[in-house]
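pasting Elongator complex protein 1 for the record, 251 residues
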Amino acid sequence: MEQLDEDDENIINFAIECAQYKTALRFCTKFKKMKLIETSLLPSLLDEFVNTKELIETNWMNFKKYKNRLQEVKEMKRNKSVDLYDPYYATKDSDLYSDVGSTIASSSGSGRSYRSSKNRRKHERKVASLKEGSQYEDTALIMVLHNLVTSTFELRIQVKEINIVLSCLGKDLEAITLQTSLEKTLKEMKESFKEIWSNTFTLEATSAAVAAENIPEGCSVIPQGMATLESHLRIAPVVQDLQWKLEGLNL
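structre below
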């Protein structure tokens, strides 16, 4: 009996370590280990609550910071374009393609050719940098903003699982706080989609990628700037509707 008792506790503790809080709660009830709820499950659950809440807040602060910086970079580029305006090039897409920065090199070169995967990897690391003032900072900002949105929306199921157990254990205030925090963050992120991934941006980024692919025969191209963005990054994140909010958890 002692061995069976120890095995039951190990199962519950393993579920807690794996953040399977609903499973742990079910096993506590099934194996009549209610004491473990107070000594093991609840402390771990509250730690998870705090960590998840802080993650949501951090993601939101970073999102605002990078979104504001993107607007600054766009404004600086617009002002620079006006300062460098030349009527001779008024009908040309000079600004778009200088921003794209596709580097075309002869494919007949020797071992120095950019064809080597090693050089390509080095180049890709240099293309998009969040360092303020870097040439393709706007590209890096788009990438990190897209990732922040995606990762934050992926927290919905995790928050739902945490809140179910919090509510079961009488921690409604914590559950309300977590759900409200995520709901507000997701709403404000989504309201920024059109500002970040505007139709103009999507068109220019797609045109840049197409231009980088349609190069003269006998040449190789190293895409730079917006031309390096994968197709899913040129548009706002596609968000799937999920039933993640618990009824009754509203302030």
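The chain has one domain: 44-233.
The longest strand covers residues 103-106.
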